Amino acid sequence: MHALIQEMLGFLQKDEIKALPEVGLTLYRCDTPIPQISYLQEPAVCFILRGQKTVYWGENCLSYGDGQYMCYSVELPITGEVLGASENYPYVGIQMKLNAPILLQLMIDLGKSSAHFSSDSPAQIGTINEPMINALHRLANLACSPSDVAILAPLIQRELHYHLLKSEMADRLYQMVAVGGNVAKIAQSIAFLKANFRQTLTIEMLANQVNMSVPNFYRHFRQVTAISPLQYQKSLRLTEARQRIKQKQGTLAQIAHDVGYESSSQFSREYKRMFGISPSADFQAA
To answer: Which of 139, 161, 176 finishes a domain?
Structure first.
């Protein structure tokens, strides 16, 4: 791991985030702590080679650091912060997007069935092992060899997914690619919420949209995301609002209305409850 950290520190500028889409990785270097930032986290694995990060969603909070990774099996509106980074000890991390077709093919090749597995959280912390580091190192270096990417990148990506399936993440990843099961229906509902979070929605509407009973839908949604459907919608609204506030894209009243709030006072209460700061104070600090 030390060799990869040193190479990344030599490759990245201070406080640089560099996307390598050709190999499906994003590299991170932070020389200063990053305060809480809200965003929609896609299904991915976030490896921390050095440093510490805390993420929040709903009432949930997870911290992980040196030599650990976080696996997200569904899209989540989260708030994250990088702690303790400095010029003497920069944060170094890598994010890899999860590839559902690769996971599905590996599951078939391994003779596994998602029906044998269960998981009750959308995010889980694991320990980076040597095979993962070796594959990450080779995949990151491959970005410097464009002529080799088309042939070798899919092979190394498959290898990384294989190592994840052999780790403590197996339950979560098998559920992620379950076809026709409850997890797939919740993923469909999440996609619907993302596209329609500004609208007034009810549990009944969301359950009907995926052909599930209300109790069954609610139970499985909480099992997959660790928050309720309407909490998820609220998080999407407030995450979008905070991004607009940070960029000062309109007045607070306009922003509240644009993300689906009819009441400015309700927007202010829920914003402060989620982020610990009022929207007006956040706007002034932006």
So the answer is: 176
One domain, residues 122 and 241? no
Helix (H, G, I), strand (E, B) or coil at 225: helix
Same domain, 74 and 130: yes
Within the chain, strands assigned E span 17-20, 25-30, 34-41, 44-50, 52-57, 60-65, 68-72, 76-83, 91-97, 123-127
Q: How far apart are CA 235 and CA 39, in angstroms?
A: 10
Structural domain range at position 111: 2-176
Same domain, 163 and 193: no
Give the Cα separation of 232 and 122 in Å (integer): 12
pLDDT tens figures, 24-51: 999 999 999 999 999 999 999 999 999 9
Q: Are residues 148 and 128 in the same domain?
A: yes
Q: How many whole angstroms separate alpha carbon 152 and alpha carbon 20?
A: 15
Residues 6+ away with beta carbon under 8 Å from 78? 38, 39, 40, 41, 55, 56, 57
CA 170/CA 228 separation, integer angstroms = 24
Domain shared by 26 and 156, yes or no: yes
Q: What is the pLDDT of residues 16-27, one digit of tens each?
A: 999 999 999 999
Question: Half-sphere exposure of 278 toward its Cβ, with a 13 Å CA cutoff?
Answer: 8
Residue 91, class by beta-carbon neighbours within 10 Å (0-12 exposed, 13-18 middle, 19+ buried)?
Answer: buried
Residues 35 and 153 occupy one common structural domain: yes
CATH number of the domain at 165, please.
2.60.120.10
57-to-62, 158, 247 alpha-carbon distances in Å: 9, 30, 22
**What global pTM score does this model have?**
0.87
* Other Cβ atoms closer than 10 A to 166: 14
Residue 273, helix vs strand vs coil: helix
